[in-house]
Structure formats: C-alpha cells, structure tokens
Amino acid sequence: MKGWKQKLLSQSGREGGDSHEHHIYWKNWKKLSQSKQQGGLGFRDFEAFNTALLAKQGWRLLINPDAFWGRILKGIYFPNSNFLVAKKGSHPSWLWSSLLHGRDLLLQGVRWQVGNGRSISFWTQKWVPFSDDFYIRSPLGPFHNRNTVSDFIEDGHWNVRKLREHISATEAEMVLQIPISQTGFSDKLIWHFDPKGQYTVKSGYKQAIALMSTSVSIGESSANPSSKFWKVIWHIPVQPKIKLFLWKAISNSVATKENLFRRNCSPSQISSAAFGIVARDSISLLRYVIAISLSSLDMSPPWSLAALVEDTRIWAKNMHIRFSWVNRESNQVAHWVARNAFSSTLGFSWDVSFPDDLTSLSRSDLYGS
C-alpha cells in the first residue's frame, strides 16, 4: 500500500486495506476474541454475545414464569414441566428455538440456593456450589429420588450423621459449608457466576467465551504466558502501539521471513537482522562504528539475540561507553550503518578512518544540518 494510505491510515487501516486485496491473517478470531489477560486482544465474539443475550431472555422467563408471554410459551411448549427441562418439540418456532439455544448457556450456571431445602431434589438437581457441576456425585447407599434437601436438615442445621451415611466424606464436607436459612425462606434459583446471583449479559458472555475456549482448539502451545504475564505487558507505561507490537512479537504474529515462509509468502525462511553500533566521544566525534548482520533459521526476537546483548554490555564496560536513545533524524550515522549491514552478509567496522558518506552524516548529526 503506497501514497496517502501508507501515511494517513492507522496500522489497522493499512493492514485491512481494500476488500479485494489479499491479506495475511496472523491469528484466528477465537484467539483475538479472548481477553487480554488470556493472550487475546479482547474483541467481542458476536456468536458468544448473541448467546448471552438469548440466555438473558431465558433467565427472564425462569424468574418470572407468570409473565404474559411466559404463560403463552408454557401453554404451548411445556404445560406439564418447566423451562429448564422443556423439550424442543417437533415444530418449534424461531423464538422457541432461540430461547433453547440461550438455555444451553444458562444450564452451565443456574443452580439452587438452599433456603429451607423443601423445593430441591437432593439427588437430581443442582445445589452444591462447591461441586464442578453442582450435583451430588457420590451416593453411598440406597436412596430415593423423592429425597429433598430438607430431609437432611434437622432443627435448622445439617444432619451430619445422615449426610455421611449417604454421600462421601468429601461431599459431606462441601454440604456442611452451605448455610441454612434460620427463618425458613424458600429456596430460589440463582446464577452461580454473579456475586448477587442475578444473570447478567456480561457474566453470561464470559461463561460463553470460556465454554468456546474449552470446546474449540485454538492451536496454541500449552506453554502460553500466564494471565499475570499478560497483565504486566498491557500495563507497561508506553504508547498503545508499542504494547500491540509486544503482543504481536510474543504471539509470533510479526511478519518475519520465517513466518512468511510458512505461509508461502517468502522463498526463504531465513530471518535477518542488522545492528549499527556507533560510539562517539564527549564532543560527538566518531570513535568506533560497528555493523553486525545476523541470519538465523529459527530467530524469535528479542530473546534469541542474548549473545549480541551480552557482547554490547562487555564493549560498554571495557570502553566506558554510556548509552542514550536518539531518534533516527538526529542519528543518521547509526541508521546508515544498520541499513548497509542489512544488505550485507558480513559485518564490518571502522575505528580510524571512516567512509566519506559516514563522515558527512556525522557532521549533519552534530550540527543538525
């Protein structure tokens, strides 16, 4: 892309370009829609967001079954049951099919909150907040499907002996941590993934993304950086474009020759890098100029260049060099050296006499002309 597009468009605009152009997609949408703490960029996944919105409607139907539209749906689709166990039927409407799609998400987090325990089936309903799926999973002896949670409560407290007779010691300890109402208020359905127990689109979206992440392989290594690492990266006090570049480098999404070769966009997978090191004296006259050209079959900047960094530190110590950052416009010598090193297969250096071009650029850096 050339001309005004290259100068005026942002990075995303330059990479997007026109619809008829071909582009390289470095990461799939599932990865980009992950949160920044998970290694993504936090773009909203529309499929997951739509599911979370549908689940919101299902939640309204669940907590307010006596609403007019709820009574109509109940009369048509589940006259003898409830929304959580209703069947799709042979000729479902688009509305009903959509609600059932949202219900699949609701079922991942809807559970009973114990009040007096009279409305909750001890064996067949979700009510244990510390279990992976909220069910009792380790019955020890004969049990009746009609047992309610209240059958295991005595005088406002858990019947410890009866619990340990019917379920494992581990699950019994889980149940004993659940508080029981001392005023006898009724049991109620809550959304487990919200502190207030109320379903929200935000909490539903997070759960939908989590489900998609576990069911769809993202194709990344199991050695991905931790969420703590990504939090540090995104909170570095630098410009956003630098943070984005760090994300691209760590996610292996930079257009190196190796990556381009893997996508059949480069005839060679050799990655090259060039560095120009310019040493000046106290009055800014050239003392040393070192150009280094590197080629590697498996280069992953910046950590693969550790040897170069160590060499530079040794030179600095031995020659009492102090480093400072200077922008390209005021340091044309270093830019000229790096550019020429990049086009050369061998490094080069000067410490006595310098090429005329280099001397001229040094004067320009010194006097700003």
Q: Spatial order of the strands in the main sheet?
A: 5-6-7
Q: Count the E strands.
A: 7
Order of helices and strands: HHHHHHEEEHHEHHHHEEHHEH
**How many individual helices?**
15
Unreliable spans: 217-222, 296-304
Alpha-carbon Rg, integer: 32 Å
Q: What gap, in angstroms, lies between the N and C termini?
A: 31 Å
The fraction of residues in strands falls at 5-15%
Q: What is the residue-averaged pLDDT? A: 77
Structural class: mainly alpha
Measured as a percent range, the helix fraction is 25-40%
Shape: elongated
Instruction: Profile the largest sheet.
Output: 3 strands, antiparallel
Pfam families: RVT_3, zf-RVT
InterPro entries: RNaseH_domain, RVT-Znf
GO molecular function, one term: RNA-directed DNA polymerase activity
Organism: Tanacetum coccineum
What does it look like?
This protein is mostly helical. It has a domain at 268-367. It contains 15 helices and seven strands. Strand 5 and strand 6 form a beta hairpin. The chain is elongated.
Q: Short summary of the structure?
A:
The protein is mainly alpha-helical and 369 residues long. Helix content is 40%, strand content 10%.
